[in-house]
Amino acid sequence: MKHCTSCGAELQPHWKFCTNCQAAQPAQTHGVTAASPGTESDAAPNAGTHDAAPRQAADSQQAVDQQATQRFEQSPEQPTQRFEQSPGQPQHSNQQQAPMHVPAAATSVFDPPVVAHTAGQSGQAGSAYASPAGAGQAAACPGVPGANNGGSVGGGPTGPQGPAGPGAPSSGGKKPSRKIIILVSVLALLAVLGLAAFFFVQNMVRGGAGSAEGAADKMVEAIESKDFIGLATMVPPEEREPMQRIQEQLEDKAEEFRLEEAVSKISDEDSEDGEELTFDGISITFDGADPEVTEIDDETALIKYTTGEARFQLDPAETTGAIRSGLEAAGYEDEAKIDETVQLNEMGPDGSPLTLIATQRDGRWYVSPLYSIAEMINETGSFGRGSVPESAGGSDSPAAAAQAAVEAVPNVVSEGSLTPLAGTLSIHEGSLLYLYQDMFDEIMAGAGGEELNIDDVRFADGEKDGDRAVAVVENITVESEYGDKITLNGECIEGESESDSICLSDSGYSIDPSVEMLGGAKIMSLTTIKEDGKWRVSLGHTVADWIINWSDSLTREQALAMLQIAHTEDTTGDISVDESTDVEFNSAGFAVLNLTVDEDMALEAEEEYEFGDMLVYSEDGKEKITDLGWGEEVEAGDYKLVVFAGSEWQEEFAEQGNDFKYSSELTLVEAKGYGSSDSSYSSDDSDYSADSVPSGSYISSDFGVLTTESAEETMKSHTIAGTDVEADLEISAVGSSTSTVVLGISLDGKEEKLEIPKGERVDYSIAYPNDGKDHELTVHMLSSTPESDYDLVSYTVAVKTK
99, 379, 411, 656: which could form a disulfide with 420 (CB 3.0–4.6 Å)? Predict the structure, then answer.
């Protein structure tokens, strides 16, 4: 048979059915033909499904990232392809790709795929072979099963021969007008570009790459090009989205609280865009960074850099924005250029190769910071890896998911393992616990074996936002094996006594860190997400919601206090030395006053224990002068004073919240030195005889602060005035809240060690020579346990008569 019996057209070698005599013919532009079978589609992994075989696309994801136009090509050997998915439909599974529906166009079926030869496509780079779906449905030959015998859809022409309505000739006939051909071509091109744009935007939003290797390459490219938005899209959505929500919240709060305006009051007048984050003057480049990729399982891959190097260059003089401001604040703006090269195979723990973990979610691969950190710790401890079960559990509602997570806690405690909790968490978080089970069990070692009973667990479904929903605590009763019992509801933790109970207030602010800050969470809840039709607890989104609620509970004044920029506020009154002033404190428990000092003197509050910190700044607030109460002189002049309320304010605020109003009388007086008793003596007194100095008097004092921030700040020296009466050298020190610190106390070269448990005050005394001579005292920070990059110890030294 040389002609189609239904339409009379001469059969072509590449036709399979005579329907092709009415369909548009494949364009042969500059020798470009359909892509060969087997080309991976990285651009639209969820674009659609074939009726009998997987879709083979022509372009890789890299091509999609570089141009908005995307090709959709199919091998002549492949069966019919359909597009039936709504562009707005989310993808939930990489096992079953959802079909795609193109709005305003009927489903087109072509076998093999064809495209109209259009002026808009011919000879153009990135042109595509695709159906003119936007122009209407192509008509088939009359009498062929499945053909459209009722004319073209939407009135559009069907192929080069125009409408094929009832009575229209099957071949030949009047040629279509040039205007119609152009219209069809434009509509077809718009349809192709529209689909390409849809998949391009979809993948841009989803981020990731089509393979673990691709994810690693994109990460390197983003770092080198300083494309930190692109870098963020390489982080798994389960880790990225909670951080993005927190970032957006903090940005909104910064705008609401006018923080930029506040900072501008105390910043250098010549600085511009001081808060803008730019990376001028910084360059990071990679050479030979070809990772070895090893599959751990279907969803996880190990990326190890055994070759290559990274070069870091910093020119402080060329930096701008926030980085420049940070360098200036640290005094590094005039430092020499930095040019360092490190070998990637030495960047891991203990000089091992840099190792990252890529995870696959919904067909896309990402580089996971969370998994990578776990892998580094796992590698250091030489732990094995577990396996992730195929079924990760899940519940039918947010409340049921939260209940399942809480009810798993007793098993976690008794077994000393986080594995019982894994099945109740999001797939990403649960898989982490399964994969690094041995490592987490080692961390939990020693915590297991106790019995914890949790019953009457009830949650209620709270606010829902798409596939994320809050589950609010209605009741949780917890009882230890020793009989201690507490009950939680949405707003309170109730113990067996009033002192063991606490209710959440309307504010998460506290002058000093305390349990009252939990009040900012407003309500006890867990956040859940819906995955594969099931609800699971998301720890990441739970923390994000807590932070968002907590920040919503703050006032502008509280934010300024916590950021230690309370001095940017305008003054609300005046205060002078020896004059009683009624000070009204704001919602953050501080007041800003104009301070006038008539002569050089050290100042303190008359009732020093009724107030907190009192900070003196220059009149414009740009320079900190001193903290009152430490004996340092303030020169005569005008200043800005920031004074914080004391413990009485804090206690009342914890009960009443942001609406609490408080004022107190403050009188600044000249400081009397260490100890405020009338029997204190200045070190300038000329005669210290046993008859003239009462027992228990302080006759000399000094103070110091040690930190591990730099070597120079780990040691302080003091010259202690001589006395000819019997006395002790008393040392009172407060250590770090995170480490136990050991000090070396050397008097005239003889060293003794003083251990300060974390967060505690230690008082220590040694006999002071009564030879009437000055003596040298050195206080040195020897060590801390555990070791920390930053520890701080404040102390006072004083000579007290016996």
Answer: 411
Separation in Å, CA 19 to CA 166, 170, 573: 17, 11, 90
pLDDT recorded at residue 480: 85
For residue 37, the number of C-alpha atoms closer than 13 Å in the C-beta half-sphere is 8
With beta carbons less than 8 A apart as the criterion, state whether 242 and 236 touch.
no
The per-residue pLDDT for 177 is 55
Which position has the higher pLDDT, 318 or 426?
Answer: 426
Strand 611-618 versus strand 668-670 pairing type: unpaired
Among 6-20, 67-81, 536-550, 728-742, the minimum mean pLDDT is found in 67-81
Q: Which of 212, 211, 213, 234 has its CA nearest to residue 222?
A: 234
φ, ψ at 202 (rounded to 5°): -60, -45
CA separation for the pair 17, 144 (Å, rounded): 9
Distance CA 126, CA 189 (A): 12
pLDDT value of position 318: 86
For residues 672 and 701, what is the distance between their CA atoms, to the nearest angstrom?
11
Facing residues of 121 across strands?
none
Find out whether 378 and 372 touch, Cβ atoms under 8 Å.
no
CA 794 and chain centroid, separation: 33
CA–CA distances in Å: residue 122 to residues 32, 59, 75: 10, 18, 20
Query: Which pair of structure tokens corresponds to residue 713?
Result: 């700040």
The CB density around residue 608, as the number of other CB atoms within 10 Å, is: 14
pLDDT band with cut points at 50, 70 and 90 for residue 309: very high
pLDDT (tens digit, 9 = 90+) per residue, 266-305?
Answer: 876 554 544 566 778 888 899 999 999 999 999 999 999 9
Strand (E) or helix (H) holding 428? helix 427-435
φ, ψ at 30 (rounded to 5°): 55, 35
Beta-strand runs (E) in 258-335: 282-287, 292-297, 300-305, 309-314
- Give yes or no for a contact between 720 and 777, defined as CB atoms under 8 angstroms apart: yes
190: confidence class by pLDDT, cuts 50, 70, 90:
low
Q: Which amino acid is located at 788 in the chain?
A: S
CA distance 623 to 602: 18
Q: What is the four-CA torsion angle of 464, 468, 472, 477, rounded to 10 degrees?
A: 160
What is the pTM assigned to this prediction?
A: 0.60
Rounded CA separation 368/219 (Å): 11
- Determine the 3-state secondary structure of 298 from DSSP: coil
- Please report, for residues 205, 329, 594, 732, 780, the alpha-carbon distance to residue 791 in angstroms, rounded to integers and kept in the order given: 42, 21, 34, 17, 13
pLDDT tens sequence across 765-791: 888 998 888 899 999 988 888 877 778
Structure tokens at 434: 């399964």
Q: Is there a contact between 226 and 279 (Cβ–Cβ < 8 Å)?
A: yes
How would you list the strands of the sheet with 727-734, edge to edge?
Answer: 698-707, 792-801, 727-734, 761-768
Q: From 396, 495, 403, select the one nearest 457 (Cα to Cα).
A: 403
Where is average pLDDT lowest: 153-167, 184-198, 493-507? 153-167
Q: What average pLDDT score do residues 457-476 get?
A: 95
Percent of the chain at pLDDT exceeding 70: 67
Pairing status of strand 590-597 against strand 574-576: parallel
DSSP string, 778-801: EEEEEEEES--S--EEEEEEEEEE
The pLDDT score that the predictor gives to residue 165 is 36
- The pLDDT of residue 677 is 38
Structure tokens at 241: 């989205």
One-letter amino acid of 521: A
Q: Inter-axis angle of helices 539-552 and 237-256, to 10 degrees?
A: 0
Cα(730)–Cα(695) distance, rounded to whole angstroms?
14
Of residues 31 and 650, the one with the higher pLDDT is: 650
CB contact at 8 A, 708 and 780 = no
pLDDT score for 725: 87
Mean pLDDT of 525-529: 95
Q: Which of 409, 446, 410 is nearest to 425 (CA)?
A: 409
